[in-house]
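We emphasize that the prediction below concerns an isolated chain of 315 residues; any contacts that depend on oligomerization or on bound cofactors are therefore not represented. The input was used exactly as deposited, without trimming of termini.
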Amino acid sequence: MRRRKPRTPPSPLPQRDGVDPVRVRQPLDGAWATVRDHLVGRLAAGDGVIDAMIAEGRILRADGSPVTDRTPYEPGGYVWFHRDLAPETPVPFDVHVVYRDEHVVVADKPHFLATTPRGSHVAETVLARLRRDLGIAELGPAHRLDRLTAGLVLLVVRPQERGAYQTLFRDRLVTKEYEAVAPYDPAVALPVTLRSRIEKERGVLTALEVPGGEPNAVSEVRLTAHRDGLGLYRLTPHTGRTHQLRVHMNSLGLPILGDPLYPRIAEPVASDDFRRPLQLLARTLEFRDPVTGREHRFRSARALAAWESYESWDQ
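Result of the prediction step, given as a token string:
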């Protein structure tokens, strides 16, 4: 009989500004004498930072009691704390709620705003904003959209239902269509379905197509309209590899406008420079709700600046 995995205890700390506290599990085979020693050895914060947090009572055990410098190490135990966040540049664009019921929230996110906390983007994310604005502390993502891409994102209200919605994306039961603005080239035969192998290494900014590799990325590209040397494209991804649409458009010789990575890595810009958004938009999202059985189809109300007003778009 398979042994049931022990249930993770709930956090003794509430969220702060829509951000969950950090949870640290103490390994079963750990040999540290105290929790303090484990945290100093495991985290890159340094012993001075850990000691200060302990002195201020900011690190808590599962029962809500503060960790002291003498709290014994507990194999398999957990502790929680809120890390001090570095200042983040506010993204000066709103998140629009397209739909909300007791199960899901569909958000229309702007360019430059990350979906979930990651790296240096923590409080300035769709998830943290909506948790604060809607008062739904347990709101969680069913999938992610790149920080530089605008458009529709599906979030789940109840943690126990999140797996059902995530399975929709895993099993490709969600129909997604994107719009993009890129150069127009009449020599590129469209529509076309691209199949290739895309791989991205951790710590490397760009993803790469592997020549001759077993395909793991499939995208359909159609031209919707063109004018003044630009094309408006409808992109339908049938898989979900990192940077898939950006890589495939670049492979056609039609790199998406505003892309800082493809065809080449651009010079870094200031964190408060929002003049050149990637001209990629998650326009539609369609699926059958796995909980209610409802058929959903949502459409982003956002526009791609380079297509709507190319002359005023900062080039």
